[in-house]
Amino acid sequence: MMKEKLEAYIKNDEKLKGGLIGISIRSVSTGKVIYEHNGDIRLHPASNMKLLTGAAALEVLGTEYKFETEVRTHGVINEGKLVGDIYLIGKGDPTLLVKDFDAFAEKLKEEGIHTITGDIVGDDTWYDDVRLSSDLVWTDEQYYYGAEVSALTVSPNEDYDTGSVMIEVKPVAIGEKPSVEFFPNNDYITIRNEAVTVSEVVEDELIIEREHGSNLITIKGKISYHSESIKEWMAVWGISEFATIIFGQSLKNKGITWNGEMKQGQSPKDANLLVSRSSISLSVLLIPLMKLSNNGIAEILVKEMGKKIHGEGSWEKGLDVLEREMDKFGIDRTSIGIKDGSGISHSNLIPSNEITHLLYEVQTKEWFHAYLHSLPIAGKEDRMIGGTLRERMNGLLVKAKTGTIEGVSTLSGYMETVGGDELIISIMVNNMLDEETGKVIEDELVAIIAAG
After folding, report:
1. Considering only CA atoms, which of 9, 51, 24 is closest in space to residue 351?
2. Are 346 and 430 in the same domain?
């Protein structure tokens, strides 16, 4: 009955007209394909790509893997003066917050350092100097989900939107420019406020854009006097430099001054370790990766896998590791095309049958509980539980990764039918004029599958 209903839906529903859909359904227990439609056709996975990245990272790095950040000195400390330079050394940690830089500065203060005669140096050489993935759409790189990837970075919040700043726009008196605040506050970012507060109710008429190759952020359009504040997370151009500046601000706030420059460079091998910080473990980091579909974390994991296996933190080496791990899971490497770790590229291509095959195979791994726990859960309002499915498919038992890029919506994961059958599903909707329609299609298909 389910198969006939699915076929009828695919054949007759007007929402799919002109689009392309791939569906794969397997048994959780046997891995047998119960139903497929275009199951071997390569389609754009969008953020379903993170299912591959997460599995590879857990296998290569391990659930307890942590990223390190170090502060080292090169010189002599004498009567409160560091006669020499100080180095902030990033090793890929996507969870660094302003408060962590404050903690580093506090440690210097505790060591009695109040003056640095040399330079403040940011060291991001743990990875290569390629900041943006090769197939990133240029219009995406101004927003947090297309932010630069660097070994030395900083996030504005505990969603770990690495490489970005949070812009908040609030209405004021009618006819006046709205107030604008941003965090972390700094002189590296320039705001050009051309917006206006209006009396009428307006929606989606406030535009926030960053000029390519700079940190000039322009705010224009209208915001209603009756509106709540509007927030947007914008990517920073030159994130390693930005992180170094934020560290300098933390030092200044603790009363520590320096006489040299603030710059980028590599720490000398004989630099002395002053303080280090470990990130949360990978099993915990998987929560924002999957539930919030965090692109920055995904791309950092790719580079970190390259660093660990090949000694080079690059997309080329990291994606090589990812593909090799997929081969070990029995994924047909000749049937897939992988261009990044997050799925933001429109050049990624994966058949839905390969995704469900992966989801079947990973069940035998020791780390599977962490993997499954990280997936969004349908209808759970808490965003750190429901994630991107918190407002979808209420009442259905679904744990799955969503995916959205222009014209594409995908959903892959695990579900249980009304009759108690446990299934692995992958639904990939491509070539849509409106990706939101793709989500409606997914929800309606899952309801058919759940009914059995």
Report:
1. 24
2. yes
